[in-house]
Design the sequence.
């Protein structure tokens, strides 16, 4: 069974063809990095404009890479909950039109479900319940994944997502955008103990996060150094910052894994690509006896394959969406409301 | 030739289904914030009224702007996907061309206006002395107070914007031999379908892989003036 998955949550335009929920026949991601680089962040209006320009070209590329035609597709899945509203609107418009034109079912999904399922693509045999730490520039959550389609949101960031902090720190250091990969690379050359940055809420007895204070601490350190005319070692800043982020993410995940007693922990979202986080969680899993899974790099970022995979399981369970679904910038998942923070908006016109 | 015209550039969403120049069915609603949710269901109702499947459409025509950014984005994204999935022709229609073509044959100059944000508007002058409206002037972005300097009288100003904007224009041209008319919203989809079918006959289909909304008119003036329809 072939599912077309469409994802336009933020600044990547993606379409994928996934067979039976695990065989990724194609996963085309049109990155808009060139559009947003000079702004040091994602500009919502510019992102939406690029989505509408390239959407059909991306879908065509997904079909041709997979070697299939529109008529081979069983259903179309699309993220319609969670993301930049203007961006999601484009993917939902396209998905609804394709569903109607081809007379095939539409399956609307939640963006966070996509990230949870990004680990099921390669591991359809995953244990339930399991724990999912999903972290990107837009969200930072811990979910207890009870069974297919049922999630208990047990932890979230109270302010910035870790990925957002990465972007902001990279901007402070003048390193460009997006910050995750750049800081990860630079951190490997620095001393993680050079600066003693705070580990916000690390000892609080819950699974929530906060990264705003850490970001401020980096900013204050840089400002102080500049005022005193002292030079900073950028690699040391990056390494010390990353160590603080990873300490908190690992500590909270460990606490949640212990309390829920799961046998498997998955990591998802853009920050799941971070080498230090992967290493530390793998070590923790070995020590405490749980399996740690993370997706391949294209499945960490926003992508159509994870959407198609969720849509596959929903369709199998008889869940489809009517053609009058709307798009939402945030929507509840599990037991608590997610707050999406799209970042500071600027005028684009 | 069966053409489906969709206009989401203004307050109303207007859809019309034509066979050659005969209207088969239409649908017109003020969808506002429900545009994304209700556009496809509205198309479904129009096709249902005509009792033909969406696959029977030869040409998908859509207003590409200027106008409501989200409106034209939803319209363009939808039409691109419909045409791509069904392997049919698609064509973009300029909002001012659409507005000019709503007007009956007359010796008066016709000036479509569209809100351009920050208290400005887009305007261009058209001749409608033939059945084929002809654009005579450049597209310009001006303040409403300047509009009388840009008109050749007698003039007919055409707008599909809200009442407040129309009142502002009416005040700006009071005392001049000019009228302000608001076309029936249901007529907008009809004109998009008509113009679209004509454009496809004349120059072929647009490309579903590159077609994009025309948020602003900057740059369009570099192109030679063309017949609107």
Sequence:
């Amino acid at each position: 069974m072939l599912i077309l998955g469409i994802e336009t949550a933020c600044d990547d335009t993606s379409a994928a063809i996934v067979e039976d929920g695990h065989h990724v026949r194609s996963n085309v991601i049109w990155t808009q990095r060139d559009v947003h680089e000079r702004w040091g962040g994602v500009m919502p209006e510019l992102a939406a404009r690029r989505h509408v320009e390239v959407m059909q070209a991306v879908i065509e590329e997904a079909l041709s890479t997979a070697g299939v035609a529109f008529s081979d597709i069983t259903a179309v899945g699309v993220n319609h909950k969670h993301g930049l509203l203007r961006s999601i609107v484009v993917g939902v418009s396209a998905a609804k039109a394709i569903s109607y034109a081809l007379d095939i079912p539409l399956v609307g999904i939640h963006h966070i479900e996509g990230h949870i399922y990004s680990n099921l693509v390669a591991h359809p045999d995953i244990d339930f319940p399991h724990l999912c730490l999903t972290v990107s520039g837009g969200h930072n959550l811990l979910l207890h994944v009870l069974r297919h389609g049922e999630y208990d949101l047990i932890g979230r960031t109270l302010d910035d997502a870790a990925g957002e902090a990465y972007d902001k720190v990279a901007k402070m250091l003048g390193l460009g955008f997006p910050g995750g990969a750049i800081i990860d690379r630079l951190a490997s050359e620095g001393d993680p103990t050079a600066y003693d940055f705070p580990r916000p809420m690390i000892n609080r007895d819950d699974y929530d996060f906060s990264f705003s204070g850490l970001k401020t601490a980096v900013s204050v350190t840089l400002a102080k150094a500049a005022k005193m005319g002292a030079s900073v070692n950028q690699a040391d800043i990056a390494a010390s910052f990353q160590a603080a982020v990873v300490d908190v993410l690992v500590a909270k995940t460990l606490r949640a894994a212990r309390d829920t007693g799961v046998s498997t922990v998955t990591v998802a979202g853009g920050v799941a690509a971070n080498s230090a986080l992967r290493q530390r969680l793998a070590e923790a899993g070995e020590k405490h006896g749980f399996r740690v899974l993370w997706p391949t790099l294209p499945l960490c970022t926003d992508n159509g394959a994870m959407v198609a995979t969720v849509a596959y399981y929903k369709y199998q369970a008889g869940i489809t969406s009517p053609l009058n679904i709307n798009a939402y910038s945030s929507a509840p998942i599990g037991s608590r409301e997610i707050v999406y923070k799209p970042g500071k908006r600027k005028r684009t016109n | 030739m069966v053409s489906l015209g969709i206009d989401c550039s203004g307050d109303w969403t207007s859809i019309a289904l034509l066979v050659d120049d005969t209207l088969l069915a239409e649908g017109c609603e003020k969808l506002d914030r429900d545009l994304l949710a209700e556009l496809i269901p509205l198309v479904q109702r129009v096709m249902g009224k005509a009792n033909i499947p969406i696959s029977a459409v030869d040409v998908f025509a859509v207003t590409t702007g200027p106008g409501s950014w989200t409106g034209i984005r939803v319209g363009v994204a939808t039409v691109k996907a419909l045409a791509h999935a069904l392997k049919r022709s698609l064509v973009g229609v300029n909002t001012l061309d659409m507005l000019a073509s709503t007007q009956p044959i007359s010796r008066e100059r016709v000036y479509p206006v569209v809100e351009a944000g920050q208290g400005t508007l887009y305007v261009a002058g058209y001749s409608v002395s033939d059945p084929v409206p002809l654009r005579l002037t450049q597209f310009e972005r001006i303040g409403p107070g300047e509009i009388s300097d840009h008109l050749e009288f007698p003039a007919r100003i055409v707008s599909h914007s809200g009442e407040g904007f129309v009142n502002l224009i009416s005040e700006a041209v009071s005392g001049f031999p000019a009228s302000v008319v608001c076309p029936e919203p249901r007529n907008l989809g009809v004109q998009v379908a008509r113009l679209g079918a004509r454009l496809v006959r004349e120059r072929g289909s647009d490309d579903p892989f590159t077609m994009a909304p025309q948020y602003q008119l900057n740059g369009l003036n570099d192109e030679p003036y063309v017949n609107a329809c």
Observations:
- The helical segments of chain B are 35-50, 69-86, 95-100, 163-172, 185-203.
- Chain B touches chain A at residues 34, 36-41, 43-44, 54-55, 69-70, 73-74, 76-82, 84-86, 117, 208-210, 212-213, 215-216 (CB under 8 Å).
- Residues 147 and 172 of chain B are 7 Å apart (CA to CA).
- The longest helix of chain B spans residues 185-203.
